[in-house]
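Private note to self, pasted from the team thread so I don't lose it. Backbone tokens:
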């Protein structure tokens, strides 16, 4: 059986989540983004110095990655680094 290939536009949280699900379903994926870092609006290219979330962590976590104890009202750096762990 031939594996299907999917292109994902954007390496923000939604693009990374889509990629994770597709990999689990045995698709070959390529993620494209115009910026050099992951994270979309949470990347250093977009975030401003004092940017913090206004939500509780469990609304922003991946179901398979429950390392969110420090994420309630977290800084952009914490949010930016969180999805990197699923990209390894």
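Design output:
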């Amino acid at each position: 059986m031939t594996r299907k290939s999917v292109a994902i536009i954007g390496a923000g949280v939604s693009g990374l989540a889509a990629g994770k699900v597709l990999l689990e379903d045995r698709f070959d994926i390529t993620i494209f983004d115009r910026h050099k870092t992951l994270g979309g609006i949470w990347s250093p290219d977009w975030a401003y110095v004092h940017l913090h979330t206004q939500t509780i962590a469990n609304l922003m976590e991946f179901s398979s990655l429950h390392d969110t104890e420090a994420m309630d009202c977290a800084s952009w750096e914490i949010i930016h680094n969180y999805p990197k762990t699923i990209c390894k």
